[in-house]
Amino acid sequence: KNNVYPRPENSTQLDYSWTLAQPKSPWISLNEFCGYWYPRVRKYQWSKQTYQTRHDEIYSMDIGIGDVVILCSGVSGVMTFGEHAMIITAYDSAGKDFKLSGHTNPRKDYALLTILSTSGYNAVDFYLF
Question: Are 125 and 43 in contact (CB under 8 A)?
Fold first, then answer.
């Protein structure tokens, strides 16, 4: 908006000098992100149980660093809802699993199998970029 606060120190200064992205931006809303990318990228979808059982087979597929994993609630194959997105940032070749990084709970190279076994997510969607 203006150059009064080029490096704001609080939300008042930020609001005064900067116009922020709209809430419907695909970069700050998971729902909008999925709506934007769903028709544009290849994707795989598995229930939590399928991923846990077949992770070694899934690990050998064409999924790579930089691809996005959407952690979902709901009933896989019927109706799922994206709850959280993380990025594949590393591989666990010994455990045949993907390691994810994200910001809500600061995580770096956190195993997907661990996430699924310690959370209420019921399905995972992989968006391949």
Answer: yes
Alpha carbons 93 and 116: distance in angstroms, whole number? 18
**Interval 13-44: pLDDT, tens:** 878 888 776 666 666 788 888 988 999 999 99
Torsion sign (Cα): 64, 58, 37, 108 = negative
4 - beta bridge partners?
none
In angstroms, rounded to a whole number, what is the distance separating the alpha carbons of residues 56 and 95? 8
Backbone angles phi, psi at 79, to 5 degrees: -155, 120
Tell me: the pLDDT tens digits for 52-102?
999 999 999 999 999 999 999 987 667 788 999 999 999 999 999 999 999
7-38: b or e for each residue (b if 16 or more CB lie within 10 Å)? eeeeeeeeeeeeeeeeeeeeeeeeeebbeebe
Going from the C-alpha of 32 to that of each of 19, 24, 49, 120, the distances in angstroms are: 19, 6, 27, 22
For the chain, the C-alpha Rg in angstroms (whole number) is 18
